[in-house]
Amino acid sequence: MKLLRRFWIPLIIIVVVLVGGFTVMRVRTFFGAGDGSGFASAKVDDTKPFDPKVVVYEIYGVPGATADVNYLDLDAQPQRVDGVTLPWTLRLESTAPSVFPNIVAQGDGNSISCRITVDDELKDERTSNGVNAQTFCLVKSA
């Protein structure tokens, strides 16, 4: 009796763990989760190649003016290019199913424009006027 008083909590924990483990095993085998297929199925390896997306960033304005350009590359990582001469163009290709093109530019001229095309289709174009004009273009999903 003294031994049972001392070890009743660890015994309850062991019983609960065993019953819980048995229940999880039964539920997994009942629903077919224990067949070992996991994520490595033949369907994943059988994907068909597709044409890459071509994203073109363009910044243009007063010829000969310079601009500081910030954009997202196709992995959505910010990139910065300072002091580029206008017009400026960057062409990127991706095999990702979706991309998020975004560009911001500020120039030293009184007018600046941006344009984003994806697969030769114009997605966004903006123009800004003023001293040291700033503009941005954004495509939510392409």
From TrEMBL:
One Pfam family it belongs to: Mycobact_memb
Primary subcellular site in the record, as a coarse category: membrane
Cellular compartment(s): Cell membrane
Sequence intervals crossing the membrane: 7-25
Stored InterPro entries: MmpS, MmpS_C
Name of protein: MmpS5 protein
One cellular-component annotation, GO: plasma membrane
Gene3D superfamilies per record: MmpS1-5, C-terminal soluble domain
Annotated family: Belongs to the MmpS family.
This protein's UniProt keywords: Cell membrane, Membrane, Transmembrane, Transmembrane helix
UniProt keyword Transmembrane helix, yes or no: yes
